[in-house]
Amino acid sequence: MIATEKDKLMMHKARITGTGSAAPERILTNKDFEGIVDTSDEWITRRTGIKERHIASNARNESTADLASQAGLKAMEMAGISAADLDMIVVGTVTPDQQIPSAACMIQEALNAENAFAFDVSAGCTGFLYALWVVNNAISAGSCRKALVVGVDRLSTILNWQDRGTCVLLGDGAGAVVVESTEKETGIVSTHLKSDGKAWDLLYSTYGNAAKPEILDDMDLKPYYLIMDGNRLYKKAVSCLSSIGLEALSHNDLTSDDITLVIPHQANMRIIQATAERMGVSMDMVYTNVEKFGNTSSGSIPIALDEAHRKGLLKTDDYVLLVAFGAGLTWGSALVKWDI
Prior knowledge:
By secondary structure, the protein is of the alpha/beta class. Helices cover 32% and strands 25% of the residues. The protein contains 11 helices and 13 strands.
């Protein structure tokens, strides 16, 4: 039987062809926090590995849609495509600029991606991997050829800035990848997602207005803020991240020795180190930038992926393992055979 064009498209795999990232101009250091809450640079660094983070300002073009659009443009430039080439835009975020419309539709308008359909995915810090799963399946099913996948959050807008257990951890930023159909044996090898709604109370938002620190007077605050059970969440994160990472390796008959780079969600350095230890992975194989970005939620993996690629740490046919964990609870992994 001769394969039709439709049949051929359905045989395609999804391949990442471009990466991009963007972060607000303003940097808030650990020293800055000493004037906001009862903490110190030494305490924050020792417990989290974070030294600084980027915080969006109303005085600049740094809305959720702005940051995501900037990251998307860089990814499209690398991929050599225009916004008109996009069939779909999927955005992982929990901090859209407005409840309605979606961040994805606002990004579509900003990019003038008139041929794409667009929607958001809400999965906490695992949002980017959930969005990547959607696009991977759309391409595999033959309903999409080129897509933009974005992970973006401005967690600064949903913080209680008087709670040192959360406010020192989080930052703002966006990362994006262009994903295209390919007939090559490369690209996204497999994706693995899980959730546990019974544990929602480990990380959730509650309604209320927290005071805004004077140093951040030009920042948006939404009428709700995060509450986190740090000790219980730490244990759950390490267990879930390591198990979902090992599941991706086992599913593809690989071991940690086959992986060039692991890019985890940049929650904090202690979680990253404990996850690597459980997986039997050397920290030399783990890419981190948590020290300069903090936890950017859905943005953390695509920001780190973009950095690693632009630094030349990845070459054709390298295996890259992405693992994330977030509110919901949600967690996931994606194994990618690199080809840019």
